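Ticket #4471: structure output looks truncated?

Reporter: J.K.
Steps to reproduce: submitted the chain below (266 residues) through the standard prediction queue, then opened the result file.
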Amino acid sequence: MTMYTVDQNQVYVNMKGKGEPLLFLHGVPDTSEVWDDTIANFSDNYQCIAPDLPGFGRTKSPRNFEYSLENLASFINQLLSSLSITDGVHMVIHDIGGIVGLAFAITHPDKVKSLTIMDTTFFSDYEWHATAKIWRKPILGELAMYLMGRKQFSAAMKKGAPILTDTQVQSNYDALTWRNRRMILRFYRALDPVIFKQWEDQLQTIAQRFPTQVIWGKKDTFLPAAHAKRFGTDNVHVLENTGHWPMLEQAKEVHKLISDNIILAG
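Returned output as attached by the reporter:
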């Protein structure tokens, strides 16, 4: 286990390979393990970096960690500094890792070489999916988290991506300690869609700064595929027969697309 101190966080980072840095940011309810197969594919040629984000997996964060966009961007900046990475990174971001990554890319565009966005939001008019709406409500969210057993958890994940394996689902469920569940509630409650309003114009310009592509599952039930074309780039790939986790469901195709985007960065 490799742990790094980032501000008041003890951050678990899965880091393998050598070469240009390639940063992977996971979503909910995932941990860095969601990128294991992707890292195995790229670590021969790149330095692959996949942290457990604050409050998730093996990363230990203070209970008062601030889940503002500014602080999340600062967290990534400090993490890269702790890893002695100064030349910029290729980024692959998914779900709430997309929110974290986009906040970083907007505030530190000079530190991004290429960007691959998957199934996320950064829009003030977005309405959270049904489960997230429950999590955002005090008391009701705590009750829902407390009562969420493996069977209910599995059904929710497979609704978003029916071809996920039982092993993939179990790995995520095992990572959901009560502390992690509480932090997830705090994350969702901090991210009222209205906060994206002042960032949206900047979002439309980042694709002009570095190669940017969007990969999306057409059958994603959490984040409709219509959002895929809203990130300021025409380099959009909506994958058929794919749900919320393209990197797990269509790994070979996703790996090729990531490679192609990195090549565009020269």
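Triage note (M.O.): checked the attachment and the full token line is present. The radius of gyration is 17 Å.
Status: closed, working as intended.
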